[in-house]
Structures are given as C-alpha cells and as structure tokens.
Model the fold of this input.
Amino acid sequence: MPLVGTGTLATTAAAEGRGLGAFNVIQLEHVTAIVAAAEEAGCPVVLQISENTVRYHGALRPLASAALSAAEDARVAVSVHLDHAVSPALVEEAVALGVPSVMYDASALPYAENVAATAALAERCRRRGVWVEAELGEIGGKDGAHAPGVRTDPAEAAAFVAATGVDGLAVAVGTSHAMLTRDAAPDFALIRVLRAAVPVPLVLHGSSGVGDAGLMAAVAAGMTKINISTHLNSRFTRAVREDLEAHPRSVDPRRYLGAGRDAVTTETARLLRLLDRPAREPATRS
Done:
C-alpha cells in the first residue's frame, strides 16, 4: 500500500488510545523483519533510521531507499522516520529523499536555542508536509550511560510545542536509552499530566527498558509513539550467536543473519499486538 506518514499513524493512534510501535533499523534484515511482523500482527508500524546508523553506513540514501520501498510494498500501513538527527543537513537530505517524518534533536542546546533551532527547522519541514518530532530535555542513557532520572516539566513542554510548532514531542518520564534490562519505572502520573498539557502525540524513547506491563500502562496514561531499538538488537544478536554456536562451520551470512531476522520478526509482532491491546482492552486510569 502507499507510504503512510508517521503523523497520520500517530494522530490516529492517539485518538484511539493505542500505541504506535516505532522500531529502529540498522540493516536490511531489520527492515524486512519489522515489515513482516507488522503484516503478521495486522498493525501499523514505523521504521526508524537514526543519525548514528547513517554514520555507520556512511550515507542515508541506501538504507532509506530500502525502507521506503519496503514500506510502499507492505500490506499494512508502514511509515519511515529519521530518528535523533542533530544535523539539520541530514534532516534536509531525508526530506528530499521522501522520508515523511523526522526527529530533530536539539535537546542538548540551552532552552532558548533549542526553541529557535527547532522552530526554524519545523517551519521548513511543514512547508513540505513533513511531520516533525522534537525533544525537550535530554533523555538519559545516551551512549549506554544511565543518567540520573530527568523529568520533563509539563508547563515547559506545552510552551515548547506552542513556540516551535512541532507535531510530536519526546518527553523524559523515567526511561533511559540503551538499557539491556526491562526494569525501568516510567512516571505514569507525569505522563497523564503531560498528555493533558501537550496538544501533540507524546513519544516514549528508551522503551527497550520498559517491561510489557509498563508499556501498556504508558500507552493507557497517554503515550503514543513507542520507540524500541536495543531490545530488538538483543534478540537479533542472541539468535545469531545461538546459530553460530550450533553451526560452527557456517560461513553463509544468510543463515545466521536469517536467524536474527526471524527472531526480530517474532518479537516485533508480539510487541505490536501488545501496544495495540489498550484499544481493545482499555486500562483503568487512576
């Protein structure tokens, strides 16, 4: 089906009280695995390409072109998203390639500079119909370091969205990037306050560190776009290791990478069904 914009998927999910799974892709196996999972689960999905992944490959175009092609050929709604871009030039390149949504991350800048830079970029993207996500207050755990808990101020978040005109906001509510365990404790009360204060879909980064019950509760409290990367990478790596241990003479990457791809498909389909569950079985808000 035709490529669907992340904004359309996020707005619909927010209105219906569902979570929208957004999974980072590092190589083609991730792309095909996540699309296959979305088709199996019958759920929409977002394929995310981070600036770090672009740096790893040395260019955006090859992986972005593959992701866009896979999205257009999928039997369910699939979007493609540029994740955690700190370079405005990379954002411009993604937009030129047809990527329908971007996350511009100027959160490391002082507040006033973050607002100015984000507002300028959001205006350029808006003229081209591109959905823009931004981040207010740096979320912990970049480069694997679990920073002390940071929390987004609801009033500041509302003011930031009004000043920048962004379409989605990543907020700090107790999660952390690159966690290998699923024991983070999101602040659900804060999520509810943020949901009431902020008029655009909220984005949960660092979702790999949140267990199943916590993900469902976060969606019920008001989170919409749920970003997951490290958790799938762990499943991929474990499957590759197990396959190589079972077949020590194997030299065909299609065998062991295929095992990793299958593991990602299975887990992604499970997570997509989980995130979609609040729409069918609403959690009680307290």
